[in-house]
Amino acid sequence: MIFLVPGGAGYIGSHMVKYLQEAGHEAVVLDDFSTGHEWAVKDSEIMRLSLLDQEALSRALKGRKFDCVIHFAGKSLVDESIKRSNAYYRSNVVGSLNLINELMLNDNNNMVFSSSAAIFGNPITDKINEDHPRDPINPYGRTKLTVENFLEHICDTHGLNATCLRYFNAAGAHHSGTLGEAHEPETHLIPKILNRENYSSENLKVYGDDYDTPDGTCIRDYVHVEDLAQAHLKALEFMQVNKGFYTFNLGNGNGFSVLEVIKACEHVLGRRVDYQFADRREGDPPVLIADSAKAIDQLGWSPQHTSLESIIMSAYFWHLNKSEFSLQ
Ligand code: UFG
User: Considering the domain boundaries, does residue 44 fall inside one?
Assistant: First the structure.
């Protein structure tokens, strides 16, 4: 099959592209390379353009047929979305609308959309399933929810098939050690711990020690990036039989506090990780844990990395190999 992967040069997108290629499929990467990397998608056809450039997009997609479009393109940092909400609405909402418009014009009718746990806001249940109220507390979550709502409407009215996959905290790296997370600057907890050049406590801040959680730090559900990739292909297989609009939450179903993540990294690194407590980071919900029973039952999703240490281990393997495989 042939896939269009907008945002395919980013962290999750590039793992998706590799997963598709390893499964014998063709992946065409559409990316503006504002945060993605060419070294991450060396073996793919590349359309280098922004979804905000409607004319270039229209030219590039004219007459092109894809079995499915797996749409990752956009901005994805909660903190940045609070400071630059306009850029987030443009990139995530306007960009997605432009893309959907061109896909419909060219009769490309299957899409998997990269959504987020951030659409739920502060949880009112221990684990978050698909029926949980959607009440985002930051602009990033609001942009993702806006696109989900638009897709639902287009599926109802124009015969598009779309599945929205809400990731909890994507982590880890490709099992080969040749591909992994490489944000600049890095803001995510696990790579930040592993990437530190020296281990002084000033380099690592734990945002908030006064949350209503057992150790006072935020709890997150870390899910391996290759397990996320598997779910996308399962979503297409599901949509081939079930037409319409669907949503699935993707996580491991276990929550780990920031301090527990630091402890697990210490085990993997075999050394102490020092840190300092700092103020809470704006826009951070205290706890986010997925209930992924629906994805497991209906998509047949079977995550392979269920332990936090194995996820961190794969990220560390990438960290050790990174300078060889990335051109940084
Ligand atoms: N954290 C620290 N110190 C750091 C970095 C992170 O204490 O230096 C904490 C955060 O406050 C949070 C946890 O570690 O409690 C995880 O933070 P990340 O930045 O790694 O990930 P987020 O939870 O902010 O973000 C992820 C995805 C988003 C998604 C969000 C859902 O990257 O796309 O989960 O809220 F929206």
Answer: yes
Domain assignment present for residue 314? The answer is: no
Q: How far apart are CA 151 and CA 246, in angstroms?
A: 10
- Per the structure, the count of domains in the chain is 1
Report the percentage of the chain scoring pLDDT > 90.
94
CA-nearest residue, atom 4 of ligand 1: 189
Task: Give tens-digit pLDDT for 88-125.
Answer: 999 999 999 999 999 999 999 999 999 999 999 999 99
Is 298 a member of any domain?
no
Calpha distance 5→28 (Å, rounded): 6
Q: What is the CATH number of the domain that holds 148?
A: 3.40.50.720
pTM over 0.90: yes
DSSP output for 223-283: EEHHHHHHHHHHHHHHHHHS-SEEEEEES-S--EEHHHHHHHHHHHHTS----EEEPPPTT
CA of 189 to the centre of ligand 1 (A): 6
User: Which one of 189, 276, 281, 311 would you pick to mutate in the ligand 1 pocket, going by the greatest count of ligand atoms within 8 A of its CB?
Assistant: 189
In a domain, 158, yes or no: yes
The terminus-to-terminus CA distance of the chain in angstroms comes to: 33
> Residue 326's pLDDT band (boundaries 50, 70, 90)?
confident
Is the confidence at residue 327, as pLDDT, over 90? no
Return the pLDDT at 109: 97
In a 10 Å sphere around its CB, with 0-12 CB exposed, 13-18 middle and 19+ buried, how is residue 203 labelled?
A: middle
Residue 313 pLDDT exceeds 60: yes
What the block records as the tokens of 146 is 């806006």
> What Cα–Cα distance (Å) separates residue 46 from each residue in 9, 38, 200, 279, 281?
9, 9, 41, 42, 36
- Give which of 13, 154, 143, 146 is closest to 73, Cα–Cα: 13
Residue type for position 281: R
